[in-house]
């Protein structure tokens, strides 16, 4: 009888341990499935966000190209456009050796997201670029301070003039998704685009936003 009790006790103990083990395994499986679902959901949200950003960047580019096409030669157009956070608008002339390879032998306009100090590589790898039918083209942030001797109209017609170099940064840098004031000027084989930014005259903002 004593052996029977011991045997039954051992069996009950083993059954309890086996039951606990099964419960633990099931708990681990459920936890793993929960984590996998969370990771999948996060990935899907990330993909949706990336795709939406890319579509918004393409729409911005299409909108700017449409406005360029509607301007007459010698006309300056002033437009309010919603930027895209952390994206840059970049324009290269066809004679600029620094332009991305995807521009081939043409001037081009691109929207690109990434390290603005390596904007050429960023635009080449993941930017959205369209060719332009202008020999000389450029886009800059223009910092409008009270002491500026130059107006935005001066700069937009002669973007590459060295006397303006300390007044703008190469390319247009959208830090936020707020409305941006964009000026566009075209004349024969020239295209200029500037983003006017009001600044405090004492604030040192003239460092380059993008390094081509």
Question: Helix and strand layout, with pairings?
Answer:
Blueprint lengths: L1 H69 L4 E8 L4 E6 L14 E7 L5 H8 L1 E5 L3 E9 L7 H5 L11 E3 L1 E3 L4 E9 L2 E9 L14
Parallel strand pairs: 5-9
Antiparallel strand pairs: 1-8, 2-3, 2-7, 3-4, 5-6, 8-9
Task: Explain this structure.
This protein is of the alpha+beta class. The protein has one domain. It is built from three helices and nine strands; from the N terminus they run αβββαββαββββ. The chain has helices at about 1-70, 120-125, 150-155, and strands spanning about 75-80, 85-90, 105-115, 130, 135-145, 170, 170-175, 180-185, 190-200. The strands form two sheets. A five-stranded mixed sheet has the order 1-8-9-5-6. β8 (about 180-185) and β9 (about 190-200) form a beta hairpin. The longest helix has about 70 residues, at about 1-70. It is elongated. Mean pLDDT is about 80; it is low at about 1-5 and about 205-210.
Quick synopsis:
This protein has helices spanning 2-70, 119-126, 152-156; strands at 75-82, 87-92, 107-113, 128-132, 136-144, 168-170, 172-174, 179-187, 190-198.
Query: What would you report as the Rg, rounded to the nearest angstrom?
Result: 30 Å
Mass-distribution shape: elongated
Helix content: 25-40%
Straight-line N-to-C gap: 91 Å
Structural class estimated from helices and strands: alpha+beta
Query: Which spans have pLDDT < 50 for at least 5 consecutive residues?
Result: 2-7, 204-208
Summarize the helix and strand pattern as letters: HEEEHEEHEEEE
The largest sheet, given as strand count, sense and whether it forms a barrel, is: 5 strands, mixed
**Strand portion, in percent?**
25-35%
Strand order of the largest sheet: 1-8-9-5-6
Give the domain tally. Answer: 1
* Average pLDDT number: 78
Number of strands: 9
Number of helices: 3
């Amino acid at each position: 009888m004593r052996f029977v009790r011991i045997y039954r006790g051992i069996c009950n103990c083993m059954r309890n341990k086996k039951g606990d083990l099964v419960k633990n395994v099931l708990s681990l499986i459920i936890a793993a499935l929960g984590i996998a679902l969370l990771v999948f959901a996060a990935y899907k949200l990330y993909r949706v966000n990336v795709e939406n950003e890319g579509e918004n960047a393409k729409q911005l580019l299409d909108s700017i190209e449409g406005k360029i096409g509607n301007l007459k030669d010698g006309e300056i157009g002033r437009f309010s456009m919603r930027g895209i956070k952390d994206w840059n608008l970049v324009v290269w002339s066809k004679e600029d050796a620094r332009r991305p390879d995807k521009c081939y032998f043409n001037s081009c306009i691109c929207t690109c997201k990434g390290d603005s100090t390596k904007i050429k590589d960023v635009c080449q790898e993941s930017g959205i670029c369209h060719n332009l039918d202008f020999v000389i083209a450029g886009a800059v942030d223009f910092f409008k301070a009270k002491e500026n001797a130059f107006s935005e109209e001066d700069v937009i017609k002669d973007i590459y003039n060295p006397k303006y170099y300390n007044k703008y940064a190469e390319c247009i840098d959208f830090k936020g998704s707020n409305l941006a004031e964009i000026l566009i000027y075209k004349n024969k084989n020239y295209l200029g685009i500037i983003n006017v930014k009001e600044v405090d005259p004492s604030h040192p903002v003239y460092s380059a936003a993008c390094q081509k």
